[in-house]
Amino acid sequence: MARVHERVAAIQSSMNVVPKISILTPCLNGERYFKECLDSIHSQGYPDLEHIVADGGSNDGSLRLLKGYPQVKLISAPDRGIYGALNRGLALAGGDIIGILNCDDRYASEVFAAVADAFRDEQVMAVVGEAISFRDVQLDTPIAENRYSPAGTDPLHMATLGTPAINAWFFRAAVFARLGTFDSAFRIAGDREFLLRFALSDLRYRKLPRVTCCYRVNPESMTFAGNERIWHAVLREHHRMTAAYLRRANLDGHARELLRRARTRDALHGALYSARHGQVRELLFHAIAGSRHDLIWPMRFVMRAARILFASVRFRSAGAST
Q: Which domains does the chain have, with CATH numbers?
């Protein structure tokens, strides 16, 4: 904590004032992991912090838990999903810097001071750090599964072929004033669509070479649950997003290529999964989506399916010979 105070003092000396950070947390029946999320925010020791919880109508113990955190600003009302909740939080936020943390995730320690330090440069409009996903095998035994690093990539790649990891991002409030808020028509992929808007804006950003947030893999997670129904919904939203941007006449060649590659990849994944599980309607949907912007998509599908079939036959043959 002493290091946090030293860093904040240095920021205050160079900027005259410590920037206010607003953290937005969408919540719906998140009691199970909510306390860990709250503690990761309020134990940072940052002097000018605003935490807004946008609750969509929880009927578990989430709202009771918040009574132990009187500094939290609560908005509780039905909404149009996570991005509608975030937009309600944005309308209330008074911070210079905006961060997002879901109620089942958590920040790493001493993150806010590092983020504020990175924003000393007034030209920097966003800061992104590393993220990890982890699974709780037991309550006190988290196991890291994947690491998402901004090193060696850029926001355009993260928004198309990569992982947005929006909880690892912090934006100046002016970014939302310029680009708009989240598109709540996307129930799952709204973070990817917003990051794509940011990437195409060419606004300056900075990378932090440290973990800023930790995503929890759990059955309730929108994107890390491995739920088949959610996965199909994600792919459908990705198709809708890429189609909308590929229709833009002023899209540059690099962005167009990445969007086409992302669409081809998602359509292949969805079609192959549907074929293996006999889901004919889903297979046709992904085949049409893939072929619409990639004329050789059917050939790609046949070649990928053939490789999978060949690998499966070899595996079975090897097993039989032993």
A: 2-216 (3.90.550.10), 228-321 (no CATH)
Output the six-digit token pair for 137: 């095998």
Q: Is 193 exposed, middle or buried (0-12, 13-18, 19+ CB in 10 A)?
A: buried
Phi and psi (nearest 5°) for 147? -120, 130
Q: What is the pLDDT of residue 1?
A: 58
Helix (H, G, I), strand (E, B) or coil at 142: strand
Would you list the DSSP string of 168-198? GEEEEHHHHHHH-S--TT-SSSHHHHHHHHH
Q: What CA–CA distances, in Å, run from 300 to 92, 255, 263, 272, 306?
A: 48, 21, 13, 11, 10
Please report how many Cα atoms fall inside a 13 Å half-sphere around the Cα of residue 213, on the Cβ side: 27
Q: β-strands 21-27, 97-100: how paired?
A: parallel
Report the Cα 233 to chain-centroid distance in Å: 16
pTM confidence score: 0.88
Helix (H) / strand (E) containing 3: helix 2-15
CA 218 to chain centre: 15
Q: What is the mean pLDDT of each run of 10 residues along the chain (322 residues)?
A: 57 70 96 95 96 94 94 89 95 98 95 96 97 72 79 95 96 98 95 98 96 82 58 92 96 97 96 92 94 94 86 56 53
